[in-house]
Write a structure and sequence with these properties.
Elements: H1 10-22, H2 29-40, H3 48-54, E1 56-61, E2 64-71, H4 75-79, H5 84-95, E3 99-107, E4 113-120, H6 124-136, E5 144-147, E6 154-159, H7 166-186, E7 223-226, H8 243-246, H9 253-265
Parallel strand pairs: 2-3
Antiparallel strand pairs: 1-2, 1-7, 3-4, 4-6, 5-6
């Protein structure tokens, strides 16, 4: 709800106040927020794979499939995890990603957000191309500055534009994928892109690379999709004035209730759980 986080809308404020009036026994807003924040940022006991899957979205374009994970800790601490590069390699091989973008977020004592990001790929071309796209982005400008990385396959940055959350970074990645698809579809220019193949870790079979060229005609658009292994992120409040807020007819409460009743009446009796469950 803090304005400096760059997310709150008038509708958010309206409904937060409404909920607080409906539930007067809730803790004070700041206390409640801190409790939820602490639980959200608690990654103790999680493996690197679990941390990456905790809040992840997947994107694909042409022969390139990548993941964008939000990790709730400082990048320096993340990079110091033992055997991190090997774990990222195994993660990408297991889930068939060529590239991984990790966005970290932490908060100062004044609850001001601090953002950093890292780009991992065993392919120098993928890693450098994605990094350049993020560095050169103007809408929004992420205002990146290099951060020392102990691993050759990981490029890390401080992100001074702290209001640019993943939701605002995804369009940059989508545009990068569109451009990549066009280049791959030409096929004749693949030699100019450098060496893309290469086993990323000893656990892989020899020659069992997890990325390869497919020179079929590229689809019209690159896809940003929810990863099937994690629950979808809930829709945020509609920003005032957006097309969904004004351009479509409202669904009344009565219509929703009627639909639920209809669904319940059509339910197959044989699918119902036995009484007592």
């Amino acid at each position: 709800m803090a304005p400096e986080a760059g997310k709150v809308t008038p509708k958010d404020s309206q409904y937060a106040s409404l909920l607080e009036s409906r539930f007067p026994n809730l803790p004070e807003r700041g206390t409640l927020f801190q409790s939820l924040q602490n639980a959200r940022f608690d990654v103790s006991g999680l493996s690197t794979e679990q941390m990456l899957l905790k809040d992840m979205k997947a994107a694909s374009g042409g022969d390139l499939k990548l993941a964008v994970s939000v990790v709730y800790m400082q990048m320096e601490a993340f990079l110091q995890r033992s055997g991190l590069q090997q774990e990222l390699c195994e993660f990408c091989h297991k889930h068939k990603y060529n590239l991984l973008v990790t966005m970290t977020i932490s908060f100062s004592e004044n609850n001001e957000p601090f953002r950093q990001l890292a780009v991992y790929s065993s392919s120098t071309v993928y890693r450098e191309e994605m990094s350049q796209a993020l560095e050169n982005a103007q809408n929004p400008n992420l205002d990146l500055s290099p951060l020392r990385s102990p691993y050759s396959d990981i490029k890390a940055y401080n992100q001074r534009n702290t209001v640019a959350s993943r939701k605002k970074v995804l369009p940059i990645i989508k545009e990068f994928l569109r451009s990549w698809e066009k280049r791959i579809a030409q096929c004749g220019n693949l030699d100019d892109l450098g060496e893309l193949e290469g086993a990323c870790c000893p656990a892989m079979e020899k020659g069992g690379q997890y990325h390869s060229h497919q020179c079929d005609a590229a689809p019209e658009d690159a896809g940003i999709e929810e990863d099937s292994q994690v629950p979808p992120t809930p829709m945020n409040s509609l920003v005032e004035g957006c097309p969904l807020d004004n351009g479509f007819p409202r669904i009344s409460e009565e219509a929703i209730v009627e639909k639920i009743i209809k669904m319940a009446s059509e339910e197959d009796p044989d699918d119902k759980e036995p009484e007592g469950c």
